[in-house]
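Hi R.,

Here are the chain sequences for the assembly we discussed:
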Amino acid sequence: MTHAMRWCWRGAGTALWLLLLWGAALGQSPAPAVRVTWTGPIVDPDSLVWTRAPAVKVPLTPQVITVPHKPDPAIKELTVKVVHNGGWIAFLMEWKDPTKSDTIMLDSFGDQVAVQLPISKGAAPSPMMGNPGGRVNIMQWRAAFQHDLEKGPPTIKDLYPYAWVDLYPDEILGVADARPYAGALGLENPISRGVATPVLDQMAEGWGSMTAKPDQHALGKGVWRDGVWRVVITRPMVSDDPNAPVLLPGEQTVMAFAAWEGGNREVGARKSWSAWVPLLIQK
Amino acid sequence: MAKVFNWQLGREMDYPYEGTRPRRQFAMVFDTNKCIACQTCTVACKTTWTPGRGQEYMYWNNVETKPYGYYPLGWDVNILEKLGVQDQSKPVYAGKTLFEAAPPGEPVLGYLPDDADYANPNVGEDDSTGLMPQGAYLTMPHMQWMFYLARICNHCTYAACLGSCPRQVIYKRPEDGIVLIDQTRCRGYRECVKGCPYKKVYFNPITRVSEKCIGCYPAVEGGRQSQCTVTCIGKIRLNGFITTPDRADEHNPMDYLVHVAKVALPLYPQFGLEPNVYYIPPIHVPPPYLIQMFGHGVPQAIETYKRARDDKRLLGALMLFGSTPEILHRFRVIGDHAIGYDEKGGEVVRVPLTEPFQIRAFFDEARKVYRHNVT
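And here is the predicted structure of the full complex:
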């Protein structure tokens, strides 16, 4: 049992919370993943395919189970639509956010949203990032990655317009010699940059275990307009990755969500999240 | 939280993890009386470890002027104010640690500085507490004062950065107690920046993860002292390994200075992190300020230090500062020399307790002239 889980299990009150959220999926009528005619991945939030899917309101609750808590997160609800074309399943999340936060600095946090699916069939794991033995696939879209892809990764001049620097190691050293001075970028830490997609394809089996997968399959796109984020996250329904869910038309599974408002200093465990929501993948 | 024993507080305290100590503990002793804030340590660290993109205003080592210098701005007064006044008059600490004062849902009492707090690393530099009126002269302790406080990561026994990380990305090496952040797993939540009361974890906005002093572990693994230590022109630093007081070895210079002579004291021990950088307090600064900063042992440390010239063993330990790049595991004073030994017992340095010097006669017989400050 991880350290974080020990914290969780200490209080009977928190255990009750967990049970309530875990079991919230039971008895709900499933949200449909509507079958649409579309070739390839569905990544555009403005695509007409979304008119085919019903909007489902997913309430989010503050993360106050594992330390650190966020008792006052800004995002209380997501509006979710799900479609698939037999090859790709896509989730459209919409929520109100008066400020677009896509810059990461010490005291600036980025907007984010994540979709979580169980990896194995059978009893659903904990909706809170899974549990040991109960792995989940978490696909997380980041506004900062969206910014990286559309406008290029920020330079120090972008972040601090009056910064003045005489010389960096990578200006005088070869690539290999400069690499140790590049920190996490030199080690290709997946959270340092949005490389090909603004979505991280990850897995977890409990708090603190989130790991970006070696093979990244998730795609997506986020658009902020008039105080509303509209974000699509999509992934192949079937892959050869043993740590990816297998999603087949006609089957039922569950999905869960988490969201972070950067302007409210939400990051990591300081977020709002949902219970499992039943999902029926239409034939 | 688990119960751990903090020898600096003389009691058990709460900590998020079980109290497992490393096999040996990286430690430093800084003699504040000798520091002139030349920042050679800062530049040595900067050029060695943090010249990269996103590290422009990141100083793993810095030297600030107390009482009005801070990097980042107000780091210590901010957390002291949050913690509130605590009773630290006795060897057994009667107040609350930052772990014990943690708000609900938080691992430790902390705060996240503003980005702008790092913008002026030399704020307050050389500022004294006040002006000397006409005709006034200094007495001990000084009525107007300032001193230089060199700072690196304290590689705490009970590190708050480590205890704050929800991903267990920060770890304390069992072989030397150096605290490191795994740069491949950090996700840049900044919980460690918030949790560390010394604000010695920094956020890199280009790599989007946190970074900190690595205790020059490649040097330490090779038996050598850290860059900030070996480059110190004032010879104010000694880098080595410390043990707990119950296992103190009086022949280990770090144990001797901290546990036997008790001239070197931890920085803000009341926070409860058991920091492993130890300071010889400045003898000219009023004790009430220093007791808040270094704990109840300040008056005794100052008295012992002032008598160092009469204590060959203490003088010998102090003379070993800056005498060699090697880590000294043992030392002895034989005659008028202090001798430092490496881990295998080999002699690596021999220094005189008193530097030899010559006084030339005021009148030069050969040239029939008086010597008036001529070189």
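The two ends of chain B are 66 Å apart (CA to CA). Residues 40-49 of chain B form the longest helix (10 residues).

Let me know if anything looks off.

Best,
T.
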